[in-house]
Amino acid sequence: MVATSQHGRQPVTSHWRFLRGPALLRPCERRPGIAGPEIVAPGMVASAQVIGAKMAMEMRLPVARKPFSESLGRETKKHLVVPGDTITTDTGFMRGHGTYMGEEKLIASVAGSVERVNKLICVKALKTRYNGEVGDIVVGRITEVQQKRWKVETNSRLDSVLLLSSMNLPGGELRRRSAEDELAMRGFLQEGDLISAEVQAVFSDGAVSLHTRSLKYGKLGQGVLVQVSPSLVKRQKTHFHDLPCGASVILGNNGFIWIYPTPEHKEEEAGGFTANLEPVSLADREVISRLRNCIVSMVTQRMMLYDTSILYCYEASLPHQIKDILKPEIMEEIVMETRQRLLEQEG
């Protein structure tokens, strides 16, 4: 097939060749004065300089894996169900969340793992929206400023609410909220700001009311936000952790995880409204990036997230470069090593 070039000077001969990649068939241009066909990769513009340059190719071959404990393969299997599966035909059990009674048998209404507490049976969904509970620690993003309240996105079915009266004023001042405070709401928190808060109440429709009446809550500064499934975050007494690797994490029960450099000194008089905007060093950025990739690896392998598991996964990833952690074979190796270390710790 012969076509005319864009400038109309020389004819361009096009040939069809088989290429590997997203495009199975792609025309390859052969230009006069250049020896051999010019292969144009998807998304690239070929030129004479590109043809003469050497191209680096990365190849990953299977290697011998580290020997892991045999107990990893003998983990207790969970009872997984899908909607419509019969959980039990015993009528002595009580119906919990994710189940319903039908024809004298207990049937699952969601896909997940069956959990039993005495005579109560419920199904915990593997991937679902956040269902708020009083006392949960959440990380959210301001989506709207309304009259005496902020709307917050917390990965739940409905937007959460942060009332003006449910937060500390700048400087930790304790007094009634006035009209001047209401006019200055956007100066406190505006659209797009990230905050950490605690669930104060859950309404009948499932909406969540938040509060930030502690100096450890409030506006978040520089860091990285990772969104995971809420079912993978382990419930603990505290969800604010300063890891010895040089970074801190906030494990929100709603599946929002905030990774940020550990501050040298905490400004308690700021009332949670002063964001640290100082330049972050290269070493801290590398630690944060490694922690982020480790969390993504654990989420891919469906592993529970808490401070010990994240720290063990971080230490297991140190022999590898940060960009290599997300490779499937390295990801599996790191998570398997983390699981083995956790099993050895449990004894």
Describe the structure.
The protein is α+β, with helices and mostly antiparallel strands and 347 residues long. Among the domains are: 2-52, no CATH class; 77-125, RNA polymerase II/Efflux pump adaptor protein, barrel-sandwich hybrid domain (OB fold (Dihydrolipoamide Acetyltransferase, E2P)), CATH 2.40.50.100. It contains six helices and 20 strands. The chain has a five-stranded mixed beta barrel with strand order 11-12-13-15-14. The protein has a four-stranded mixed beta sheet with strand order 4-9-10-6, with no helix packed on it. Strand 2 (11-18) and strand 3 (25-30) form a beta hairpin. The longest helix is centred in the C-terminal third of the chain and has 19 residues, at 282-300. Belongs to the RRP4 family. Residues 129-200 form the RRP4 S1 domain. This is Exosome complex component RRP4. Residues 223-263 form the K Homology domain.
Descriptive key words:
five-stranded mixed β-barrel; RNA-binding; alpha+beta; OB fold (Dihydrolipoamide Acetyltransferase, E2P); Exosome_cplx_N_dom; nucleus; phosphoprotein; RNA binding; 347 residues
Give the SSE map.
Elements: E1 2-4, E2 11-18, E3 25-30, H1 48-52, E4 80-81, E5 86-88, E6 94-95, E7 99-101, E8 106-108, E9 112-117, E10 120-125, E11 137-146, E12 149-153, E13 160-167, H2 179-183, H3 185-188, E14 194-202, E15 208-212, E16 218-219, E17 224-227, E18 240-242, E19 247-251, E20 256-261, H4 282-300, H5 307-316, H6 328-346
Parallel strand pairs: 6-10, 13-15
Antiparallel strand pairs: 1-2, 2-3, 4-9, 5-8, 7-8, 9-10, 11-12, 11-14, 12-13, 14-15, 14-16, 17-20, 18-19, 19-20
Helix pairs in contact: 4-5, 5-6
